[in-house]
Predict the structure.
Amino acid sequence: MQTNPNNPSDNLDEEERDILESYERGEWTEKGKTTLVELQQAASVKPLMAKELYLALSSEDAHRLQARAEKHGVSLQELVTAIIHASLEHEEVP
């Protein structure tokens, strides 16, 4: 098939062409419109800043934490955060 540089649909792969054809057959519907004001409001929301905390741990505790994190398939940061959160909530920690 020879491509026409003036026809953007000629540069599509098979999946993209299927999607375009589906759209052209009217199989896609609009769910609603987002206004410019709504987009601006969403963009202005700032994520909550996390506090950084530096800890000095014994080598033994650091190794035990790392081993537990690996056992549960989470990062060391995630495990320490979970332990602190659970401790503050008086819950069990894995």
In short: The helical segments are 14-24, 36-44, 59-72, 76-89. The longest helix spans residues 59-72. The chain has a mean pLDDT of 76. Residues 8-44 form one domain.
